Amino acid sequence: MKSAGFTTRWLPILLLVPQLSIIAIFFYWPAIYAMQSSFYLQDPFGFGSTFVGLENYSSLLSSSEYMKVTRFTVVFTALVTFFSLALALLLAVKADNVLRGAKTYRTLLMWVYAVAPPVAGFIGVMMFNQSWGPLTELARSIGWDFKLGVNFNDTASAMILVSVWKQVPVNFIFFLSGLQSIPKSVREAALIDNRSSFGRFWDVTFPLLAPTGFFLLIINITYSLFDTFGVIDTMVKGEPGNNPMTLVYKVYVDGFRGNDLGGSSAQSVILMVLVLALTIFQFRLVERRIHYT
Amino acid sequence: MARVHLETIRKIYPNGFEAVTPTSFDIPDGEFVVLVGPSGCGKSTLLRMIAGLEDITEGTLSIGDRVVNGVDPADRDIAMVFQNYALYPHMTVRRNIAYGLQNRKIDKATIEQKVQEAATMLNLTEYLDRKPAQLSGGQRQRVAMGRAIVRDPALFLFDEPLSNLDAKLRNQMRIEIKALQRRLGVTSIYVTHDQVEAMTMADRIIVMNGGKVEQIGTPHEVYHNPASTFVASFMGAPPMNLLEARFEDGMVRINGGTPVMPAPAARTGNVTLGIRPEDVRIDDAGDIPFHVDLVEELGAHRLLHGQLGDQTFSIHAMKDEPAPQGATRLSLIPDNICLFDSETGKRI
Lengths: 293, 348
Hints:
CATH class of the domain at 88-289 in chain A: Mainly Alpha
Protein name (chain B): Carbohydrate ABC transporter ATP-binding protein, CUT1 family
Largest sheet of chain B: 6 strands, mixed
Largest sheet of chain A: 2 strands, antiparallel
Oligomer: heterodimer
Domain ABC transporter (chain B): 4-235
CATH class of the largest domain in chain B: Alpha Beta
Number of domains of chain B: 2
Shape of chain A: globular
Family (chain B): Belongs to the ABC transporter superfamily.
Helix content of chain A: over 70%
Radius of gyration of chain A: 24 Å
GO biological process, one term (chain B): carbohydrate transport
Structural class of chain B: alpha+beta
Number of strands of chain B: 20
CATH topology of the domain at 88-289 in chain A: MetI-like fold
Strand order of the largest sheet of chain B: 6-7-8-3-9-10
Number of helices of chain A: 12
Order of helices and strands of chain B: EEEHEEEHHHEHEHEEHHEEEEEEEEEE
Strand content of chain B: 35-45%
Distance between the termini of chain B: 38 Å
CATH architecture of the domain at 88-289 in chain A: Orthogonal Bundle
Radius of gyration of chain B: 24 Å
CATH architecture of the largest domain in chain B: 3-Layer(aba) Sandwich
Number of strands of chain A: 2
Shape of chain B: elongated
CATH superfamily of the largest domain in chain B: P-loop containing nucleotide triphosphate hydrolases
Number of helices of chain B: 8
Keywords (chain B): ATP-binding, Cell inner membrane, Cell membrane, Membrane, Nucleotide-binding, Sugar transport, Translocase, Transport
């Protein structure tokens, strides 16, 4: 193939500069700075820093608190991702079968998408208010003395619930469009081949939704890890001490509340590596097993 | 294998549209029936009601001796071949063919044997482990056929199965499907808008228009004795010539007075005269003037299109018959003339 070249050397560079500078300033520079400061111990008041080598990392890895946050993050991510996807899929399958008022039904299900994470968190705080929150009362009616912000598990449940609630609409939209892109005749062929609707779903519908599902899996893991910051922040605001938090929130707490920039940078670097590994793993291993039509 | 019986089957959609008016017919065991008609005539709706993919608004449908109105498609003992094949894209050819059997608690060895038999019959053996995306249109069509065959159903349903294939492949598959159906002896209902497919494949043709059955008959009957002007003009390429005529003085007269045949007793007024292009002869001694505007050369024969008076008219001429251009004369074969009521279009 013939490619059109530039006659001068500086023009292509000039044209690339805006894009490259944005990437450099907002991505590479902070990343490099984080990597660099992860090897230093910073004076809390900014008067100086001492090179400590890998000490920030080793103290993190031996810290039981960091391990606890890591464990919680893994559980939180797994639960939020699973429930967001499962609920959205269930709703999408049901909405797909609705014949009357389908549009209204779908619009109502998508509404929550427009709610910003901190607002969602704030709604969660109100719903679980200790004295008059309707969900607290619901929990109480089944004998669960719900204490948001006091009991670790209760707070974690509320965080997961609100995060799932916030993410379901996005997944719902994608699953619904995925379902509607499955050819009608393929479903009808399945109707003749298999009398069980459950069997038809697992054998035909679900595999054909796999590309959508895989895409959403990545989106949801990323969401649970990073975009739930607003929800967590509103829910634990003020007393992060004994409350559940994710790795991303801990980066913020240690760096900006605890003024431990070195330790916080080390955590960011670990997260960066984690995300990189996860992405590579997903694309290399999972994608190969998925049928794209 | 089974006989199929439709008793005043009717379809009204929720918006009030009556897609199929009450329709009754009977298909004996092993017969190949073709439902033919223009788009929107209700033929596909009728087929889908038989398959169970559409609800039957009114009427009774029986396959074999069983009324199947409320029965799930999977329990009707039918197999269907769809227009766009409807193969499962994520399954191999083998699994596509076997899927319907796997859900019917048939043991693995039997399934494998049936898949092999069907694959051999359809020349698919070497493609069994491929996915549908790796096959050509004709091969996909065969897989869809295979999926139907292995089921040994009471009834085959075909929904325009050849319309996505190119002309050459279509002719070939037409013969293959017909031969296969003969061999298996399974009662079949085949929907198409292509009158050539209907003529060549059917034991009996059901011509539909506007949700109504216009005529049921063998291809020969439908072609030579059309029940209405619709059937006359839908079946055959080019269609039957329809001329405005009058009953006058005991004769049927066209073109403002030329008598062509004696009128049936006690008839007066207007009538529509139908005659197939091959039942017309170029005849210098004939008493009907004709002006040939265009000759279509088709090798074995020619089609002469032109004006008879102020009406369009076509003539079929064999390759060694004369094919004049411009003004000429012709004669009709009176025995092959069909007369239709000019108001209702029904055969007189």
